[in-house]
Amino acid sequence: MKALLFDLDGVLYQGDRVIDGAMETLRWCERRSIPHRFVTNTSSKPRRSLVERLSSLGLSVSPEQIVAPPVAAHDYLVGRGATPAALFVRDATREDFKELECVDDTAERGARSVVIGDIGEAWDFATLNRAFRLLMAEPGPILIALGMSRYAQGDTGLVLDVAPFIKALEHAAGCEAVVMGKPAKSFFEAALRQLGTAAADTVMIGDDVHGDVAGAQAAGLIGILVRTGKFRPADLDGAVRPDAVLDSVADLPRWWDNRHS
Question: For position 243, which CATH number holds?
Fold first, then answer.
């Protein structure tokens, strides 16, 4: 094992609280000069805001260390020339798409791509139906999913994330989304390219047994599940078998050293 990928929310912090031992684990990682990146499906904030949030919690992370769906989607759309885009993202996240040509927020045709992120309670029938109408217009645009997490841990409990809305649009419009985030293999491969390591030499540590662990394993990485964040005991009863289950990220250094001994 040569490198690490860390999920953010639920692994390093939860709400406004840093997970016990997370800061010490990151310091250990720096002392040992272990290459690492932070991979997140968060599409409700631009990368700049993620860095500011981590800094406010005492976690020092540079923007270049964060691999997030909006940034990956921006690069994909530019590379494919898939603009103008129809953005279904929060206002803050538009910052990561500011250089792209976009259709008006009331448009129901004319887009070459439809980008769906986490917009939380802004979802209603009219909004979902506008995304559907855009996808049904000719020529058919590309559907872009900013992650495929089924749910997230909110302040008041579990909340729906991006995947349920993507699945509804795929079914209704008869299309398949291009996923910019976990568990897509291409997303993990983008992180590996930044690290410069092979999949088999890289460990992914997350709290989502499907998006983090199964996605990483399908891409050839080692997948570790932590019992924090959105973890539920039932996660261990399914088809996914993590390579390790830790109580929290605080246990990572000991696990790592045991594997290298």
Answer: 3.40.50.1000
Q: Is residue 160 part of a domain?
A: yes
φ/ψ bin of 229: left (φ > 0), alpha (ψ from -120 to 50), beta (otherwise) = left
pLDDT of 261 strictly over 80: no
| Domain-located, residue 186 | yes
CA distance 99 to 92: 14
Helix axes 163-173, 125-136, angle to 10 degrees: 50
Report how many domains make up the chain.
2
Identify the bridge partners of residue 9 per DSSP, sorted by sequence position: 13
For residue 7, the enclosing domain spans: 3-41+182-260
Distance, in Å, from the CA atom of 255 to the CA atom of 225, rounded to the nearest integer, reads 12
Q: What is the pLDDT of residues 65-79, one digit of tens each?
A: 999 999 889 988 998
Q: Which one has a higher pLDDT value, 158 or 168?
A: 168
Q: Is 206 helix (H, G, I), strand (E, B) or coil?
A: strand
Q: Is residue 63 part of a domain?
A: no
The per-residue pLDDT for 145 is: 95
- CA gap 165, 127 in Å, rounded: 11
Residues 175 and 83 placed together within one structural domain of the fold: yes
Q: Quote the pTM value.
A: 0.80
